[in-house]
Amino acid sequence: KQDWKLEQAIAGYVDAKLEQDYLEFRGLKMAVLMDFIRDCYLNLIGKQYVISEDVFRNGIKELKKQTKDVLRKVFPEVSDEQVEIMTSHVQGMNRYTFGQSLRDMFSYLGLGVSRDERRHFLYTRNKLVHEARYASSDAWAEYAMMITLVGKTLLAILEYDGYCYDWTKPSGWVGPDMARRVKMEYQESQGG
After folding, report:
1. Looking at residue 86, what is its pLDDT?
2. Of residues 164 and 81, which shows the higher confidence score?
């Protein structure tokens, strides 16, 4: 479990749940934490880059040149400045996408996360990261979805096989049958 850096991850989770920050900042902390966990996973399986970093670095200059040429051909109306801005993202082509990494990580952990749940998390995360706002007008529901998914991910890393809180469910404090208490759902693990 050392490779998952659980001490930092759990501290980050607790910090993101503290009510001292605005809900948007707490959601951003959850987004960053999921990125941290995803990075641990990619390091664990040795899959940080699509192709070797050295091979990519050796070809980046030519890739940028050809990308600029294609951009000018496809979009003749764009300025040189716009072409430069667009090609500044080329370095990211050698990294696995956040969504792909999450899908693979959840599969590796055997965590039952549907495509819709994953997409909802990604959409909310992207809105928070790029626009500093939640994807819908119900900020609490968006945040609840995030703390539930990140919490379940941490529990899956710990191989926990019990009940956990699903903060997306309505509150119902009725003893051991609390509405927010749900059994962890696993699928067949692809790794771990």
Report:
1. 94
2. 81
